[in-house]
Amino acid sequence: MSVARPSKPLISREAAVAACIEIIDTDGLDAFSLPRLAKHLGVRAPSLYHHFADKNEILTEVARDIAGWSVVRPRMNPGPDWPEYFVALALNFRQSVLRHRNAAPILLQHFPRELFVSTYERTARFLLDSGVPSELHVQILDGMETLSVGAVLMEAMRPPSRKSTIFPNVDAASQPLLTDALAANELSQKQLFESMVRSFLHGIVRDNNLEQLFSA
Q1: How many domains is the chain built from?
Q2: How confident is the model over 25-46, as pLDDT tens digits?
Q3: Confidence class of residue 74 from pLDDT cuts 50, 70 and 90?
């Protein structure tokens, strides 16, 4: 059964998405519903249908906002330091997603991959201008997406961790080696993520002798 949309919008699409995120951040995903959102905005539920077909469409826009529009895009400076662009972008993506941990299940179901793909043409130009050959572009772009999205969403689904709690419930008696490894680790979760991204990018540079291109 379709719901008739009001002839004049009482709220903006952006305001509805922002309110939805606020509800989820504050009270969790289970607290979100169309009646709750309407009450939060001070309107009747049918007003929401001027902008959205259903609850699913609202949640899709929430995912686009958190994992796309709200992620700060670093400046592209072509040259031998091109990996730093991807490191900065990955860290900004992580920051945006972790600000809204309660929305992580939404991102798993509604991840806005088209927002990533839509920027890849410009990023491919950046890589080419930086001296990175075309045959490596898909490896870099797909690899960065897979690595960043997978790592960040997995982190977002877990409680915030410190260096000592990166692996929870480790038993010193039955897992002495892992216990020692955790004690020896000096990196925070953010630093581990950054190190992982750098290792991936620098591995591509090393494995394909790109250092020689930049030093020639």
Answers
A1: 2
A2: 999 999 999 999 999 998 888 8
A3: very high
Query: Helices (H) and strands (E) in the chain — how many of each?
Result: 11, 0
Could you give the count of Cα atoms lying within 13 Å of 137 in the half-sphere of its Cβ? 18
Asked if 68 contacts 111 with a C-beta cutoff of 8 angstroms, the reply is no
Q: Domain for residue 98, yes or no?
A: yes
Of 82, 89, 76, 87, nearest in space to 208 by CA: 82
Q: Three-state secondary structure along 41-99?
A: HCCCHHHHHHCCCCHHHHHHHHHHHHHHHCCCCCCCCCCCCHHHHHHHHHHHHHHHHHC
CATH code of 152's domain? 1.10.357.10
Write out the residue range of the structural domain in which residue 23 sits: 13-53
Question: Does residue 65 fall inside a structural domain?
Answer: no
